[in-house]
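Board work, copied verbatim: Serine hydroxymethyltransferase
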Amino acid sequence: MSGEALLLVQDVWDSDPELFELIQKEKGRQLYGLEMIASENFTSLAVLQCLSSCLHNKYSEGLPGQRYYGGNEYIDEIEILCQKRALEAYRLDPAEWGVNVQPYSGSPANLAVYTAVVEPHGRIMGLDLPDGGHLTHGFMTATKKISATSIFFESMPYKVDPHTGLIDYDMLAQTAKLFKPKLIVAGISCYSRCLDYKRFREIADENGAYLFSDMSHVSGLVAAGIIPSPFEYSDIVSTTTHKTLRGPRAGIIFFRKGVRSVNQAGHKVMYDLESKINQAVFPGLQGGPHNNAIAAIATALLQSMTPEFQTYQQQVVANARQLCEGLQKCGYNIVTGGTDVHLVLVDLRSAGITGARAEKILEDISIACNKNTVPGDKSALNPSGIRLGTPALTTRGLKEQDIDKVVDFIHRGLQLSKEVTKVSGPKLVDFKRVLKEDNTFVQKVHQLREEVEEFSRNFPLPGYPDY
Ligand SMILES: Cc1ncc(COP(=O)(O)O)c(C=O)c1O
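↓ predict structure ↓
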């Protein structure tokens, strides 16, 4: 075979062993570690097969039936199938809701929503990032506009009550009256309670604002019907498809159609979201849709309508509750005192551990999670909590009794971090140095890591066996 032909047909392990070795190392990390990052999951073989299919090759700018390129007969069918399943999965009437399945991911989806319905420098309100919101809900600090959603739009955050950790809806209602936002975002990246969409709707209505629900974190739970759905009260709903929904890394936007309201003269005011949102996605912000991802969303949505998926989501929540109770029994404080969903936020202040140290030591023992601010934290740079989620572990088949074991590993890791701190003093660099150089700790960490990995490797990973 000629060299030129070889380039096209060789397996990646033959053509690029250097890269393939890194992919395999990552596979090993996923297999031997405990993945507790709340926004992650292990997607199915079917989704991975769509992602690496021939659909990747095709350009199809525009919507089904209105493409800028030829050859889109089957691509159109795939996108229409995906749209249909998206509406079915969330039990939506196509007369009332439309959907765009082209967003490349969650952040572009959200930017498309604002671009569609809020004029430049128009006003939006979202849950503050340190209180559990997402960057794309308008995040900025006192000195810097961080997210483009705060650069191109004027954002005002709402907050959680620092004592209860629960969203302060009264404060949101008061501030919204003053700020008069064009759009209010109901959505979370780190909040362990169900949202009160009815209350959000009332506040939006008091101000003539759109209610935009970003259900990215909980869209799998919503599809399974085990937590309240945002659709009843929202004008627009976005989601990523790779978190609890367990699909590919991509995004979806749902928008209302039909009558928005009836004015004082008795005339119907119609929604005009469909063309605005479709045009914001393309040509406003994106080019060619990722057809491989759209097919993968379609197949993930098909899975989401099965009884097995519902059982999976129930187990996700049962595992999160078990995790929460287990940690509470070990004496840890859980923000809001519990969880209704797939994640828990652990407040480590009373345990005398910082979020960064906890994240570091858990990473060293092969448990992946992230440090997170907790209500009342003085500095977002030095957060006092960790966020732990159960979607990925549940996909691997862990049940409540396995979560008890996980709690034990976490507790032992956190206790060890206290021992290290006694030697290192308060600075994180010293903590890391002691962890790396002090032989006693090196050994203790090694031992615990071996135990975690021994445990973890018993639970299979979906996908291809070796990569
Ligand atoms: C609530 C929420 N919205 C949007 C996003 C952004 O998604 P992506 O990372 O795919 O851009 C995230 C990601 O974590 C999220 O938690």
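The two ends are 26 Å apart (CA to CA).
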